[in-house]
Amino acid sequence: MSKPTQVKPSFYAYLFEPLKEISKKYGYNLVMNGSLNRDFDLIAIGWQFDLGDKLEMIQEFDMFINGKQSDKKEDYLWSVLPPKRQTFVININRGGAFNDYQDKQYYLDISIV
Known about the structure:
CATH topology: Beta Polymerase, domain 2
Distance between the termini: 45 Å
Number of strands: 5
Number of domains: 1
Shape: globular
Radius of gyration: 14 Å
């Protein structure tokens, strides 16, 4: 019996460079954080004096990954955590257009500092 293939880390690694290029347009450096086994933890760190709009960056990430975006930050489970770190979640295969395959632990968790 062979072990199941873990596709999440490979898929997350595939997404990283394009997402990093998007974040640069908004003045952020994007770094990975975590194991990649469940969700994809990212940290966007302000790298310039003039930073672009955070929600627009998240929307562009969502458009790249899912081909859609929302106009409301609440749809990305937006929250503020210490010390004023803003977090957003982009769901992947958690329902919606992907009803034939759902995985509650398949998402990007992005902190912006």
